[in-house]
Design goal:
Length: 437
């Protein structure tokens, strides 16, 4: 394959990967470890997704384009002969990774999650090395993604059930407003089905759409379709009744308004752009909804119990953790009687989840890596005042806020790939030399 054709094929794969981001088309493999109390648990089932095909092909093409077999062998020899600090850190990580699998209760599940991590890490390298092209394709695709999710979500709300048919192949679950454990909202005395679209839960959907909206707001030139998708995306977030997404969106609105006011008084920009007007008017219904909704006391209680359980697991296994993907397994073996089996799921905090499953060494290492990227982005924003760094910093800020109250950024495929994309782009754009967009 010629160099030019390889580049075109890689662009097509990026396009297909980003276009299928919100889908969960996959084949589940139900192992013995995938059952808790005789019930199937999705978090414990290895899955091969449609997106995996595009990811593996992208990794293969990147290796084929940049590395020969001889170069890889020479790199391994050089690694053995020159054990610097980075090499020793890598060996230490691999050592703890191996121990994390060996001492996990469900070793197959732990191995699967570490395999996922290596897959996403490799994808992140590919995206970072092709950041300009990947970012351009991502911004091109997102308006169509948001529009599709809005159509599916709003039809679910009106029909009070899943749509079925072809939408099942996109990952839509089968449910209706009377399904036990289904997410319902209440407004002005009326109960309605919260939109799931093609996601496992309205919360994960709203977090995903929130990042899409933030990315689209950062586009300098917005055509009519992008503007419509932005409006629909914000409306879908409001309709999702995800309070964490509301909180993150409200803070983004406040930050953007203050940023524009600061620019206005400094004389940098005095135009009322579409983004500014949209943000300004979006803030009012969000604050109104906050004032009219109340927290479910039972939901808060269970989330607190999950956090307490996570802290207990960290105390019991501080160094190695319970094993990647093993939180639910360890939770089911505790003394706590879980009268609501629906809540037998990962702790609703990505930082507690990392620390309890991987142990404090690996958990803190990954958390420091995450915040180092965010810190580098903020430094880049101070130098550029606009551009990709500013947009990506807002996106990671949204992930941080929502990740404090939910686990989907680490456990659900759509959010996992989106987080991988954000981190790899952020790493690339926050490192010199700067990219000309």
């Amino acid at each position: 394959m010629s160099f030019r054709r390889l580049k075109v094929f890689k662009d097509i794969l990026f396009f297909l990967l980003f276009l299928t981001l919100p889908f969960q088309i996959g084949r589940h493999f139900w192992l013995k470890e995938s059952f808790i109390f005789g019930l199937k648990v999705d978090y414990l089932s290895p899955v091969f997704y449609l997106q995996d095909i595009f990811i593996f092909l992208l990794i293969f093409l990147e290796v084929k384009e940049n590395y020969s077999l001889r170069e890889i062998i020479n790199a391994v020899k050089l690694f053995k002969n020159n054990l610097n600090k980075k090499a020793l850190l890598l060996l230490t990580i691999l050592f703890f990774l191996g121990l994390n699998i060996i001492f996990a209760e469900a070793k197959t599940i732990s191995f699967y999650w570490w395999f996922r991590f290596i897959e996403f890490f490799s994808l992140g390298i590919v995206i970072a090395k092709n950041s300009k092209k990947a970012f351009k394709i991502l911004l091109l695709v997102l308006p169509f993604v948001v529009f599709f999710e809005f159509v599916v979500g709003i039809l679910q709300v009106f029909s009070k059930s899943s749509l079925g048919g072809i939408f099942w192949f996109f990952g839509e679950r089968s449910f209706n407003i009377h399904t036990p454990g289904i997410a319902r909202g209440s407004f002005l005395g009326k109960v309605f089905l919260r939109p799931y679209a093609t996601f496992s839960h309205p919360n994960s959907m709203s977090g995903f759409i929130l990042v899409c909206v933030a990315l689209m707001l950062g586009k300098e030139k917005k055509n009519s379709f992008v503007k419509v998708s932005l409006l629909l995306g914000i409306f879908l977030i409001v309709l999702s009744f995800s309070r964490t997404a509301w909180l993150a969106l409200s803070l983004i609105c406040l930050f953007y308004i203050l940023f524009r006011l600061f620019a206005f008084f400094k004389g940098h920009n005095n135009r009322l752009t579409f983004s500014y007007i949209l943000i300004l008017f979006s803030s009012f219904p969000l604050f109104y909804l906050f004032s009219k909704t109340t927290l479910d006391s039972s939901s808060v209680e269970i989330r607190l119990k999950l956090s307490e359980a996570a802290l207990r697991l960290i105390e019991e296994k501080p160094l190695l953790g319970v094993g990647a993907g093993n939180f639910v397994v360890s939770l089911s073996q505790g003394e706590q009687v879980w009268q609501w089996l629906y809540w037998l799921q990962p702790v609703h905090n990505i930082f507690l989840l990392l620390s309890s499953e991987l142990g404090l060494f690996l958990g803190i290492l990954f958390i420091l890596f995450y915040f180092q990227i965010l810190f580098n982005l903020v430094k880049s924003c101070r130098l550029e005042h606009s551009g990709p760094s500013m947009v990506l910093a807002v996106c990671l800020f949204s992930v941080t806020i929502t990740g404090l109250f939910d686990h989907y950024w680490l456990t659900l495929i759509q959010n996992q790939i989106m987080l991988t994309t954000l981190l790899s782009l952020s790493y690339s754009f926050s490192k010199p030399p700067s990219f000309d967009f």
